[in-house]
Design goal:
Length: about 270
């Protein structure tokens, strides 16, 4: 799978495409992706995802405090595992946000030779979100691509969305979030030195230096799986801030006590 950092970096033919942030690549996203990849590959075409970073809501000033379910790299890996052939992580800027739906789709068609566009039922793009299903279909007739819309996916009464899953995680409802994601939520990063209190009481922990833009579960202790060097091991992970020992620290500690595992992990990646 190719991961491109701008539309300007890619040139494809006869592409089948879906567009969106795809934060977390949850089960609702997976419904679109399953249809996209199956159709594209049946027709000998590349299945392409065009996504954005930073999140448009942050750039447009709607959500200054927004944290993500996935980094661009994590998102690309998840998409590739679902059969996507190319992921484009387009930088989202205030200037980019001013493009009309027509100008945006002209750019997309020029770079990807677009033939089929797959979108969610409530999707819209372009300045003032003018590019809804009706408008994109109209533009498609001019530019030579078809449009297919996928309806909502529910878990019980909940319509799946990234915002819902973010809230579940912030509330500590990680089991419910896993149902909506279709997998366990993960935090990853290098293991860094802490203050050594856990080792002194014979409960050593791996302190994970996770990306600052990621959603963090509510403070508490969680039963987890940890992946270290491809090996999956059980762990008890504590999340929180210790005002007694680190009063000036505002980033939450994520400390995993990895059971049945005693090797030194400093500098290694852990998830």
């Amino acid at each position: 799978m190719g991961h491109y950092r701008s539309l300007n970096d890619v040139s494809l033919k006869n592409s089948w495409l879906t567009i969106g942030v795809f934060d977390g690549v949850h089960r609702g996203h997976q419904e679109i992706l399953a249809n996209l990849t199956a159709g594209a590959h049946e027709n000998g075409a590349p299945a392409v995802v065009l996504t954005f970073w930073p999140h448009p809501a942050v750039v447009l000033g709607k959500r200054n405090d927004l944290k993500s379910l996935s980094t661009p790299e994590e998102r690309a890996d998840l998409l590739g595992a679902l059969g996507v052939d190319a992921v484009i992580t387009q930088p989202f800027t205030s200037e980019f946000a001013k493009l009309s739906a027509l100008d945006f789709m002209r750019l997309v068609s020029e770079r990807l030779d677009l033939r089929s566009l797959w979108i969610g039922y409530d999707f819209a793009l372009g300045h003032n979100r003018e590019g809804n299903l009706e408008r994109l279909t109209e533009i498609g007739r001019e530019l030579g691509y078809s449009v297919q819309a996928i309806g909502p996916v529910k878990n019980g009464e909940d319509v799946l969305s990234s915002s819902l899953i973010r809230q579940r995680i912030r509330n500590g409802e990680v089991a419910h979030a896993a149902e909506n994601l279709g997998r366990f939520y993960a935090l990853s990063g290098p293991v860094v030195h802490g203050d050594g209190r856990g080792r002194r009481i014979n409960i050593p922990t791996a302190n994970i230096d996770y990306p600052k833009d990621k959603v963090i579960p509510a403070n508490g202790a969680y039963a987890c799986w940890a992946w270290v060097g491809g090996e999956r091991v059980p762990a008890a992970t504590n999340i929180g801030i210790n005002p007694t020992f680190t009063p000036d620290k505002h980033k939450h500690n994520v400390e995993a006590h990895i059971l049945t595992f005693e090797r030194a992990l400093y500098g290694q990646g852990c998830r």
